[in-house]
């Protein structure tokens, strides 16, 4: 397989207001990420809230420029691509179907909007294409003239998926596409995404905090902590034998239906990491049970370990 999208030493910093009478501070949202996603793969990205997942997604979409580093699609730098060409090749499916659709437009016009922007076909051709795509994602043609307010959450997300695919993109960036939906609807949307991946030869970058969802759909997995990737490799391998202590804690946090077990203890303590004041050395070491003396002094880099990569002094 050949890499469809790559990130090279990707950084994104923001200057934030720390409060009245205080100097503005620098927040490192994404801090030196190197990823490569092959055609047809599903790259899952997981981590706690605030680890930089959504910022990374916005950069991959070209919505937020990197402070340093490059994003390449087929070797071409995203920042130098024409906006329309980028939109033809990369499309998003956002988290909240209630806010990602225009409430004043009907469903067919929402799905056809990318075709309108690119001037593809006649108005009737665009409407026919939109209805065809709606039926492909499981919404009959009778919904074409409805507004988003007349649909359920799962139906709205199907509309968002249809809109993303109407231009036949190569890459779809899914930013928490099922987190706002009921559990039963989540399964339907995930199965739909997997079917569409097969039928349209799609590549996904799938961002989620739900490990069960990622295990179900992702072929490759990147675990993020405070803007860095701390573990990377095939999803099955990481779930079977997680190496980084943070990955182990994440997997230990998964709730099980077995009675009597109660809420799992991840062993991470009650404090959350502060991205404005990251610790020295390995940023995870204040919460790590396996930390060593060097962990507070040296920041480990990703190194190959078996079939994957891990950033930890234990390896």
UniProtKB/TrEMBL annotation:
Domain ABC transporter: 5-251
GO terms classed as biological process: peptide transport; transmembrane transport
Recorded GO MF terms: ATP binding; ATP hydrolysis activity
Region forming the signal peptide: none
Pfam families the record matches: ABC_tran, oligo_HPY
Keyword annotations of the record: ATP-binding, Cell membrane, Membrane, Nucleotide-binding, Transport
Database matches in InterPro entries: AAA+_ATPase, ABC_transp_ATP-bind, ABC_transporter-like_ATP-bd, ABC_transporter-like_CS, Oligopep_ABC_C, P-loop_NTPase
SMART domains according to UniProt: AAA
Transmembrane segments: none
Family in the record: Belongs to the ABC transporter superfamily.
Xref: NCBIfam families: oligo_HPY
PANTHER family tied to this protein: D,D-DIPEPTIDE TRANSPORT ATP-BINDING PROTEIN DDPF-RELATED, TRANSPORT ATP-BINDING PROTEIN
Protein name as it appears in the record: ATP-binding cassette domain-containing protein
Lineage, top ranks: Bacteria, Pseudomonadati, Pseudomonadota, Betaproteobacteria, Burkholderiales
């Amino acid at each position: 397989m050949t890499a469809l999208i790559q990130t090279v030493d990707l950084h994104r910093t923001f200057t934030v207001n720390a409060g009245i009478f205080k100097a503005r501070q620098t927040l490192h949202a994404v801090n030196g990420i190197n990823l490569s996603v092959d055609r047809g793969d599903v790259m899952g990205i997981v981590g706690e809230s605030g680890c930089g997942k959504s910022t990374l997604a916005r950069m991959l979409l070209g919505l937020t420029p990197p402070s340093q580093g490059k994003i390449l699609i087929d070797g071409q730098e995203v920042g130098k691509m024409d906006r329309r060409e980028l939109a033809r090749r990369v499309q998003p499916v956002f988290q909240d179907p209630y806010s990602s659709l225009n409430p004043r437009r009907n469903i067919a016009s929402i799905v056809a909007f990318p075709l309108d922007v690119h001037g593809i076909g006649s108005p009737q051709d665009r409407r026919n294409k939109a209805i065809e795509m709606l039926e492909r994602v499981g919404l009959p043609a009778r919904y074409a003239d409805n507004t988003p307010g007349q649909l359920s959450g799962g139906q709205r997300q199907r509309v968002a998926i249809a809109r993303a695919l109407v231009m036949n993109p190569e890459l779809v960036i899914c930013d928490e596409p099922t987190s706002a939906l009921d559990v039963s609807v989540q399964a339907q949307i995930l199965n739909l995404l997997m079917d569409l991946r097969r039928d349209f030869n799609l590549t996904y970058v799938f961002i989620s905090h739900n490990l069960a969802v990622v295990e179900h759909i992702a072929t490759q997995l990147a675990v993020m902590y405070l803007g860095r990737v701390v573990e990377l490799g095939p999803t099955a391998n990481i779930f079977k034998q997680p190496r980084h202590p943070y990955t182990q804690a994440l997997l230990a946090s998964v709730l099980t239906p077995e009675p009597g077990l109660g809420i799992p203890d991840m062993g991470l303590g009650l404090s959350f990491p502060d991205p404005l004041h990251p610790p020295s050395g390995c940023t995870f070491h204040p919460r790590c049970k396996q930390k060593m003396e060097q962990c507070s002094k040296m920041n480990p880099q990703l190194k190959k370990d078996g079939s994957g990569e891990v950033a930890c002094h234990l390896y």
